[in-house]
């Protein structure tokens, strides 16, 4: 049975909210009624933040990361190593790698990974512009940091082939057991990988 | 460690989203990035739906339910029994009762229940206007349909005292085991209530 809303404006707001991923009509109603209890200015600020972002957002013309400027702060930071590119699927992944504080090179945001099931082919992701960056000659290493899934593997394979003719090292991030994992509960594929990719023990 | 966002506009939109109840910064980022993938018009429609609702929303001057008109569709519906008022805490509760299709009277939305812990006293909820409605003389029954909590009980008690001087029946919704409940798993207070409030068996 569909809910009957006492107001068309309420109905409209709820249906807009429930279009968001992971938000059903019940949560949407809760969010909208929360909005109604807030001050006018707060609600306006909320609406404005979303529409302003949408209209004024830019993407770095070098790495395609989201940015307020033509070239993003990472690409224009002279203290960063501009001979290394870390290839990631999306903006969240840039943030995830940055958070580790273990990487000081540049990025390349593909905007997706090859997934025939979802109709995403090689031409739907930003591989050509990556090849162009490598072609410029300055890049020494490309690190593939994609998800450890079939789609990620496919994309890794495609990119590595595209870069095969250039004088650039192509590496993938290590796969193995997570820090804190207990062997007993690790799946066998991951454990197998971590044995094959074992590294010298450092004291 | 706080996340570092590549864009101030993104940061602003994420922080606005994460003010919503039950939405953390990670979900907020996911929602905002989803917005970025949608069309301009869709995002504008979203922003507009929220701000329009906030600016143009009205509350029925009779029952305080949310409404697009001065008097809500329920209060102005001549087919409804205007001698019975069902008292509820909020708008969601009106929708919940309506959904049962078991009630054909009017409503009165308190806008809260008495909760000293949350600083909500009798004067913060719409009891005076309920008394006024009863005073008008037309009302034969007031049904208290509040949550079965200490706050609900307190509010029931307060309202029933306020209405004590008037020629009106005051009832509360039945408390007992839920439809589909197994006795074995029902808490003893609820089960006790359902025995005390037993009703004649109808064949």
What does this structure look like?
Two copies of one chain form a homodimer. In chain A, 39% of the residues lie in helices and 12% in strands. The longest helix of chain A is centred in the first third of the chain and has 17 residues, at 40-56. By secondary structure, chain A is of the alpha/beta class. Chain A has a four-stranded parallel sheet. In chain A, strands 1-2 form a two-stranded antiparallel sheet. At the A-B interface, helix 1, helix 2, helix 3, strand 2 and helix 4 of A face helix 1, helix 2, helix 3, strand 2 and helix 4 of B. Chains A, B: InterPro entries: DNA_Rcmb_RecR, Rcmb_RecR, Rcmb_RecR_Znf, TOPRIM_dom, TOPRIM_RecR. Chains A, B: Belongs to the RecR family. Chains A, B: This is Recombination protein RecR.
Task: Give a short summary of the structure.
2 copies of one chain form a homodimer. With 203 residues, chain A is an alpha/beta fold. Chain A has 7 helices and 6 strands, in the order αααβββαβαβαβα.
Shape of chain A: globular
Sequence of strands across the biggest β-sheet of chain A: 4-3-5-6
CA(first)-CA(last) distance of chain A:
65 Å
Q: In percent, how helical is the residue content of chain A? A: 25-40%
Residue-averaged pLDDT of chain A, rounded? 89
N to C succession of SSEs of chain A: HHHEEEHEHEHEH
By secondary-structure content and strand pairing, the structural class of chain A works out as alpha/beta
Counting structural domains of chain A, the number is: 2
In the CATH scheme, the class of the largest domain in chain A would be Alpha Beta
């Amino acid at each position: 049975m569909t809910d009957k809303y006492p107001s068309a404006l309420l109905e409209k707001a709820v249906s807009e909210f429930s279009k968001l991923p992971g938000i059903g009509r019940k949560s949407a109603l809760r969010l909208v009624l929360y909005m109604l209890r807030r001050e006018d200015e707060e609600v306006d600020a909320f609406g404005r933040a979303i529409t302003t972002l949408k209209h004024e957002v830019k993407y770095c013309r070098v790495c395609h990361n989201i940015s307020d400027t033509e070239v993003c702060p990472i690409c224009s930071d002279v203290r960063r190593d501009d001979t290394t590119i870390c290839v990631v699927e999306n903006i969240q992944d840039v943030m995830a790698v940055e958070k580790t504080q273990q990487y000081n090179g540049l990025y390349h945001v593909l905007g997706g990974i090859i997934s025939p099931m979802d109709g995403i082919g090689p031409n739907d992701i930003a591989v050509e512009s990556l090849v162009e960056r490598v072609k410029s000659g300055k890049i020494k290493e490309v690190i593939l940091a994609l998800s450890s899934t079939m789609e990620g593997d496919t994309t890794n394979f495609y990119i590595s082939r595209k870069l095969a003719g250039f004088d650039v090292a192509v590496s993938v991030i290590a796969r193995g057991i997570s820090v804190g994992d207990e062997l007993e509960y690790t799946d066998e594929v991951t454990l197998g990988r971590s044995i094959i990719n074992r590294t010298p023990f450092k004291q």
